Q: What sequence folds into this?
């Protein structure tokens, strides 16, 4: 970790430097977004990340006298944040969040498994909260590009790792810190970090045949056109147009429902059972996890109001949609505020 130390007060009597309040505020402001993203990757929850980054700063402020100024202030904050996340994971009922229940086969026809509020579901992350690319650039030892390591599928994959393996992989393979630096942050030996990394990489190899997700290029005009066509299909209630945007092997998940679908025909059959549940839809483009996303407002029959209905995260591939993750019900509507969207939508005045 090569960051230059942040501004410190002169040493206290006894020789130990510490951050004064203005310096501490500058330090936390500079690293807030990247620490929040780190907590999100650890926890799989946008809401938990908000709370844990606040806990991190509170602990850092209370323990600032123990910071000796010899290491990186950024590393000091990451150490506190990572250990705060590990402690939080220990205290909750599930060590990880999911996009789909392990080993559950895809559904055929009508969704029958129903919602599962008792399960911990992976939440999407608004692009507006991502660090600037320059600030989030990984170190030289990183195995993942910045854009890869924020994708919804990647965060879902690392959630399968035991918490300490997850932390080691994020610190080494995503942030690019050495095993020795990571051992210093987590506590323990370099050998134990290397062992955790090997196990974590082997597990990811099971999720991805090549050991990592496919690389994505930067958003292109073709991706923008795909998003426009997706929005038009929803607003015109054009099911044929929507299904035409999917790859033949596309997948569709809809947290918090257990059901999920694979293949264009299976997805079409499901939508045919629910498409007419609402009188109409309005779509607002946004972005989540470095991917195009859409917020859908729906109007029920006999009701005039357009209400938050679902949040769609789209995984494009070769000018088509490879996967759709659609957050529905109270879970979906509850995400709108985090994306800066109102709970109801009004037609713009002419």
A:
């Amino acid at each position: 970790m090569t960051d230059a130390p942040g501004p410190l007060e002169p040493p206290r009597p006894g020789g130990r430097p510490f951050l004064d309040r203005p310096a501490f505020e500058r330090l936390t402001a500079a690293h807030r977004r990247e620490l929040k993203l780190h907590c999100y990757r650890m926890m799989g929850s946008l809401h938990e990340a908000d709370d844990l980054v606040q806990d991190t700063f509170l602990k850092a402020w209370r323990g600032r006298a123990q910071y000796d100024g010899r290491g990186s202030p950024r590393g000091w904050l990451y150490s506190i944040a990572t250990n705060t996340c590990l402690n939080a994971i220990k205290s909750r009922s599930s060590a990880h969040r999911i996009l789909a229940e392990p080993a559950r086969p895809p559904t055929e026809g009508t969704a029958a498994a129903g919602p599962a509020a008792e399960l911990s579901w992976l939440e999407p992350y608004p692009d507006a909260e991502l660090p600037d690319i320059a600030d989030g650039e990984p170190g030289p030892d990183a195995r993942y590009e910045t854009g890869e390591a924020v994708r919804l599928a990647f965060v879902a994959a690392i959630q399968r790792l035991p918490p300490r393996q997850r932390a080691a992989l994020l610190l080494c393979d995503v942030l690019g810190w050495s095993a020795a630096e990571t051992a210093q942050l987590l506590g323990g030996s370099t050998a134990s970090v290397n062992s955790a990394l090997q196990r974590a990489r082997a597990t990811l190899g099971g999720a991805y045949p090549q050991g990592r997700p496919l690389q994505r290029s930067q958003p292109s005009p073709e991706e923008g056109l795909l998003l426009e066509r997706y929005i038009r299909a929803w607003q015109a209630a054009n099911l044929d147009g929507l299904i035409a945007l999917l790859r033949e092997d596309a997948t569709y998940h809809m947290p918090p429902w257990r059901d999920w679908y694979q293949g264009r025909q299976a997805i079409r059959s499901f939508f045919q059972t629910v498409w007419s549940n609402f009188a109409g839809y309005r779509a607002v483009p946004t972005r989540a996890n470095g991917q195009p996303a859409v917020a859908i407002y729906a109007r029920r029959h006999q009701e005039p109001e357009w209400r938050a209905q679902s949040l769609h995260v789209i995984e494009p591939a070769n000018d088509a949609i490879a996967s759709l993750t659609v957050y529905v019900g109270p879970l979906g509507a509850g995400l709108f505020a985090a994306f800066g969207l109102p709970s109801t939508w009004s037609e713009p005045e002419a």
Q: What stands out?
A: The longest strand covers residues 306-317. The chain has twelve helices and seven strands.
